[in-house]
Every structure is written in C-alpha cells, then in structure tokens.
Write a structure and sequence with these properties.
hydrolase, EC 3.1.3.-, hydrolase activity, single chain, alpha/beta, magnesium, elongated, HAD family hydrolase
Length: 221
C-alpha cells in the first residue's frame, strides 16, 4: 500500500523557468553592459549545469555567472550580481497553478515529501509547511539524483519500504529511472508527451499534476 508521495521540485511543483528568467533579466539590466546579454547569461548557465552537474546548485550558478562576467573583465563583481540573482529568483519562485489543491487532496491520505537536487527551498517557493519531510541533495551526505543513495535517503525520511513510496517528477533520467532503480513506484509528469528516452517504464505517466491523485490511487488498487 502506498503511504508516501514524494516530489521533485523544479519543473514539477515549482515554476523554475519563470523564476530563473526573472533573476537573469534583473542581473542583465543591472550589469548594463551590451556585451553581456540575457542570452549569454542563459547559455553559459546551461553549459555549466552540464559541466558541473555533480556540484551544489548554488555553486553551479556562481561558476556560470563568473564565466559570463569574465567575458567583459567583470568577474570581480560576482558576489553583487549573484545575490541579486537569488533575491529576484526566490521572489519569483512559485508553485505551478493547481499545485496547492493537489497537495491538499493528497495530504488527506498520504504523507508528502519534498526531495530535490537543487536549491528551491520549499519555504522560499510558496510551499513551506506542506511536507512531512524535505530532502536536499548534497546536504548531510545525500548524493544527487539519479544516485541510489538519494532515493535511499527518501525512504529513510519517509520511514517506508520502496513499494510504499511514489516518487513524482518531470525528469525521466533523474526521477523515473533513478527512483525505479531503488525500487520506488514512479509517476512521470510528462507535460510535453515526449516518448520515454530509455527502457525503464514509469508506473504511471501523467500530463498534468491534476491527474496525480487518481494516478496514485490506481497504484493502490
């Protein structure tokens, strides 16, 4: 029987794209250098998220921004602009429409968990107080998804066996393949309808979070 529903954060519960875009736009405007465009900040960030995937999220953001600023010899200004980025990023970090209602409905029957690789702290993203546990990768020795140790930490936080926990996320590699490899049940939030890029099949695939309560109930049927 399912006892716990645990969630990825960014692009699953939290509209990270809007928040990050706002942060980078604020930095670009404040830097006011025609050589340092929004597109350049964004492209360097994307590259560094790949190059430094095993590092803490804040460190990746800092390295990317330092790289961009260095293109104009302004890397010494990093701390100023990094703080501005995070101030604006968190001010614009909000759940997707409908998330609160879904969490309210699920919380009547299941314990809820929040388990993320990144730095979207629940209480800074409009989700504080909604979860029985919160777990952040690279804190307290927890590795990043899709490592097995991340999902072992989810199970420990939930005080549950793998078959009792559903992990919900938008990333096939991190959230579906990773969780399934540790024995958890999986729900893939596949908003785009993309085909699965690998052989692991999610227990349930949904296109919208509003489908989640019924999806979890089907795993208990």
């Amino acid at each position: 029987m399912i006892t716990t529903v645990a969630f990825d954060a960014d692009d699953t519960l939290v509209d990270i794209h809007t928040a990050v875009s706002a942060g980078l736009s604020a930095v670009t405007a404040a830097v006011a250098d025609p050589a340092l465009t929004l597109e350049l900040f964004a492209a360097d960030a994307e590259d560094h998220w790949t190059l430094l995937a095993d590092r803490p999220a804040r460190d990746i953001r800092a390295a990317a921004m330092r790289h961009t600023l260095a293109r104009a010899g302004r890397e010494h200004e990093l701390d100023r602009w990094l703080e501005l980025f995070f101030e604006v990023r968190f001010a614009n970090s909000r759940p997707f429409d409908g998330v609160a209602a879904v969490l309210d409905k699920l919380s009547r029957d299941y314990r809820l968990g929040y388990a993320t690789n990144a730095n979207s702290l629940a209480d800074r993203c409009g989700l504080g107080g909604r979860f029985a546990f919160e777990l952040y990768a690279l804190e307290n020795g927890v590795p990043k998804k899709p490592a097995r140790g991340f999902f072992d930490a989810v199970l420990a936080a939930a005080s549950a066996q793998p078959h009792e926990v559903v992990y919900v996320g938008d990333s096939y590699d991190h959230d579906v393949a990773g969780a399934a490899g540790a024995g958890l049940r999986t729900v893939w939030l596949n908003r785009s309808g993309a085909p699965a890029p690998g052989p692991v099949r999610a227990d349930v695939v949904i296109a919208d979070l509003t489908e989640l309560p019924d999806a979890v109930a089907s795993l208990n049927a």
